[in-house]
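Supplementary Methods, section 5.1.

A reviewer requested that the exact input to the structure prediction be made available. We therefore reproduce it here, unchanged from the version used in the analyses.
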Amino acid sequence: MIKVRVAEDGTKSFQVYERARVREKSIKVYVGSFSSRRDAEFAAQQHRVTQRGIKAGELPAAVDHKRTLGDALDLWLRAIKDQRSHDEYESRMRLYVRPEFDSTPLVKITKAKLIDLRRSLKEREEPIGNATINTLFASLSAAYSYFIEQGWCSENPLKFIRDLEVAERPFVWLQSGGEVQKLLHECNDNIRTLVAVLVGTGMRLDEALHLMWVDVDLQHRVIHVHRGRRGAPKSGRLRHVPIFDSVLTVLREMKLAKGENTLLWPGAKRDKFDEQLPRNKTSVFRPFKAAVLRAKLPKKFRLHDLRHTFAGLFLASGGDIFKLSKILGHSSVAITQQVYAHLHPDAFAEDYSRVAFAMPEKTGVVLKLQG
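The structure derived from this sequence is encoded token-by-token as follows.
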């Protein structure tokens, strides 16, 4: 198939798209862009001949030898524009990957070159941390999965690159209900209920700001979390958060005279509340920081540390780490254990005797004496 593109100056280009077999599947691939229809038709014909050779087993599987990483990233980012991680992905690629590989063909980016990139990031005047590099490479690996699906390359060069070791990152959390109460006392009326629900449910701020009353089931004491700034929450899945006693009272008082399809914490438009407009995060961060200082809590205490506080208090009061993983929406309990298990090291103390058995006594060896 040939598509004609006309630039602003009137120049025409002829873009060729054909079918190709990638991993036993036939998919649509980009062949190239040409200045004349004749060249485009010739390229399309060559591509079909190559594909027949691949199908007959006479040629290796096809890849796109001309497409650069920059072009591929542009199309990948366009494909995921509605995902909540889009902006983070775009920023990481722009800051760390594009300067080195933007004009490099995909097929020429190797494991060795990526390891060199990682080394250069660590050796900068202001070094990039191991955790940031691991996240960057995970993002690029996700991009390569898309590239392979499109038939632009056949292998993911990041597949066998191991993550760098990351030291445990300490965080601040409020270790008693009294400290939580002190913080809530210093919060202004505009954010007090929001802070109470965040610390009482472990939800992320973005999830809470997009929460609607239709998602809150007070009768069955559960919150259905499935919204965010870019649609689904970070985990990409619906999850159900229980409404604990301290939060139930807050939500019941808030629910009075509220419609089902309105936000719990709406934003403002032209100085008037708009029930359908999510509140801006900045309008939460600033008063929260002021409340932390007034409450004389550690200056490093961030809004996201309310989530850590929920996890810490849940475990300290005997909560199950597997249930905590579900409440927080982690993709696996291993993540929850990695982040929070040290807060409650004796969590399994009552379980040590559950799988009980005794080793049999050793049978003595009988030696036959001669004589």
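Residues 2-55 form one domain. These observations are discussed further in the main text.
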